[in-house]
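Chapter review: from sequence to fold.
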Amino acid sequence: MSDVFILNTGQTPPEGTRKPPRQPRWTDTFAYIANPDQFCRHNLNRYGSIFSTGVFGGTTIFVGSAPAVQMALNGDLHYTEIGLPTTTMTMFGEHSLFQRPDLHRQRKQALRSGLAGQAIQGYIPKINTVIGQRLQEWPTQGKIALFPAIEQICFDVLVPLLLGIELEDAYFQGLPIGSKTSLKQCYKTFFDGFYGLLPWKSPLTAFGRGLQARAMLIAFMQAVIRRRRAETQLDPSSDFLAMMLVSQQAEPDGVFTNDLVENQCLLQLWASHYEISGLVSSWMYQVGRHPQFLAELRTEQATVIQDASLSTSLTSDSLKGMTLLEATLKETLRTLPP
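The token string follows.
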């Protein structure tokens, strides 16, 4: 089974149409969480690219064919809607991008200026400076635990770019979370809360602890926002939060409400941190497995960037010229998505 038909109410399905194979099982959720890749591959091989499961309760249809995926992504509430578990939607909150398609488009468009174009060009020197400093701390010989090392660099890069704050302990004085280490741990607890299966708010459950961490992080974001608003002048191109605050000042009744700003600070840092850490770690792993591409990537970099100082010569345009780099990143996203 690989084709999907959208039927109107009362419409008779074409001859030969059948429901997705496989009966949902109460063990599906546990099997999926234990090993999502194995769960999907096993059922794909046995039942084809469309099959029924009981993942996260009810009936959950897995689709693996291009037409079916296109249908699902283009549903726009006509025949599809977001069906994430209640616990997941609670952790995201009502101001996330995981909302109705119209709200998603509105919010994504409003946030675009802080995550593209001129903003990215301004971020590049800061990103390269932090990466260069942190790489100096890596051992030159022996093995390294790749993801933890990458995750540390990504956190140190993203927090200043998204929130416009320093990561020294002195900056955290007077804030609800008192250090960079505590902030990272709070985010980890928040992240773990997404895997809570039952909406029990007890601190004995991952979901309950995640909700507590979420409340603490929101309080932290509120305090940071108050501190940023007290600055004499905000440059919207300096960081993501400054962009939102300047937009809010320009249009007080616009999309950037206080709640949206707070929640975007929370969610953008969470999403960017873990997704970028996962992508970069997987990319380095893939390049390590295929060392023949490393020499080609270095040659491409040397060709596109003549200056040895990446912090001054690397631009958005030069990145666009690195077609092999882009291809390897896309292949990593295809084979080892974060």
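Two observations follow directly from the output. The beta strands are 50-53, 60-63. The chain has 15 helices and two strands.
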